[in-house]
User: Fold this.
Amino acid sequence: MRPLTSDDPHTIGEYRTLVRLGAGGMGVVYLARSPGGALAAVKVIRSGHAADPGFRARFRREAEAAGRITGPWVVPVTGADTEAPEPWLATAFVPGPSLAEVVEGQGALPTATVHTLGSRLAEALVAVHAAGLLHRDVKPGNVLLALDGPRLIDFGIARHEGATALTATGAVIGTPGYLAPEQASAGPLGTGCDVFSLGCVLVYAATGRRPFGHGTPAGVLFRTVHEEPDLDGVPATLLPLVAACLAKDPADRPGARDVARELAGSGADWEVPGLSAAVAARSAAALALPDPEPPTVVRDPGPPRPTRRRVLTAGAAGAVLLAGGGTAAWLAAARRGGTGTAPRTLPAYRIALHADLTGPGKAVGLAHERGARLAVDDHNSRTDKTFTLGLRIEDDGGDAARALRAADRIAADPRMLAVIGPTAEVADAKVVSRYERASLAQVVVSARSTTAEWSEAKSLCVLRPFDVSLALGLTYYLSRVQPAKQVVVIEDGADPQSGWAIRNRLPETATHGRAFTVAATARDFAPVARAAVAAGAGAVVYAGSSAARGARCATDLAAAGFTGTGLSTGPVLTPSFLREAGKAAEGWVFAEAYTDPAALSSAKAFTAAHRERFGSPPETWAAETYDAVGLIAQAGRTISVGGAVRGAVAARIFRTDYRGVTRRLSFYEFHQVRYDEGIFLYRVDGGRARFLGPYTSV
Assistant:
């Protein structure tokens, strides 16, 4: 529980807010009190997201669906307003910890308790399915433990069976590690997907481990689809049922009613170590909250007279837009010597850059450093700033042990608002955990993936779509820009996880084609290249992550007489690919997560300032880092008057809609950045990669 901020509402419908229970990318959950004194958890969606008709339709469906579900093991809806400017949904307040919290803190549950847990969650799913709905996100974080049993919560991604998902094309909805193979493959869903998730939850509760392990989301999804679950340690009395729930084919799984019936005869033992004390403590904390003050009625005094400051701000608005938003408009003033010195009484905060500046990734680290330095200087040159910023730089040299020590030093700084980085290719779970424990917002700019669990990384803000999602840009290109009657996907066996992830996000409706797999040990792609040409391929997608093997694929396709369009994603587009593929690379299209600031009118001032200060155009990720500082500063400005605290900055970032020099930065639910403006297309022309723009505008 966290105190309300000055921006939080005092009333939501008939409810009076007391404290915050949590915040996410789409809104805030409050503990509130009804007119009769009952406590409720009220989920409020920010108006910026609610303005999206698709999202409002989804939220309307959520409220309608949740209101129809009844049963002792689901949390009942007590009120809702789906048409309000900021729509909301209220449910009964359950003062118990989540299953994830209990198992993480105390380990696996007793076998008899797991039997009861499974029986009652299965009954909850029977109620969900009887309403014609799917939950689609059954996981330990969505199971609250009350004194009399579990409660299944959060139907935010529930939908009618067979309904079209209101999500981006090819997006996987749910939590990797707890979703079914058909969810991981974005296939048709039925009630079996919830039963599979229930099986994963029971394995976690009984062993303290996930059945498909940890790691990157792509790796976990790959194992879910292609490998058998790890059931070591599952009690013998549960093993046959759990194994049946985790069958790859939904037709081979029992129904939720079958699971409930199977476990019903095992007793009703509900002994969770430490649960009584945890519930008592949370209940006492909730009951000890004072009654909210009655709302104050303020009469409308009419439109305010414009002040000189307001007139100046309005006059400057055009300059901000022309410069691309954020702090970019102040670059010109800074170069003219307009420092905009602030009063000495302004609070001073710091942003850290956690980077590899001396190791194998030093080029990327240096680009981050230059972008961050420009952004901090530009923030401090603003005349309207409410605090000053300092930049602290920690070099981990690309070493894992040094990265942990750097994280500890950054986290110990009491004036730190947020950290940008690390700049490694993978955001390591151990480093993420260090910053999470310190409630310090960790803004990652360039990482291709993370080994952290999203449900446990509430302060982790990744500003780019991971590599596994970039194929969405290729799907758009193949279906909207340059359709081909026959598309061939060449899946590189040298990297089966990346290859599968790319192919899995190229739906049949976009590709109309076939797939070939190249063995990991193959030295060339000539056989599949000839097969692709024989199949009449008008486009070929290289599904892999190796620049060298991607170049070999391109040269072998050219040698086989392929004259269509080659496509790929992410790390394949490198100088080595262009050099080794040579003329065979011409016309290839790539989906990437970074922009070319020199090609953006919104980044014109930034590019000029970079050239002036560092003597060269900005390298990849410099402009994105510049925007990362601007995002943090904007989030900090909204709370700095009341005394910025780390947790508040981390939560505010996910509610911020920031127009940077590279793109608009805003977030979906679950803290993931919006992809519609974050995936960019490049085409190889004349031996160089030419920026085409955001994939939806090409």
Remarks:
- The domain at 469-592+682-697 is CATH 3.40.50.2300 (Rossmann fold).
- The chain has three domains: 95-285, 324-466+600-667, 469-592+682-697.
- Confidence is low (pLDDT under 50) at residues 159-171, 295-343, 640-644.
- The first strand starts at residue 11 and ends at 12.
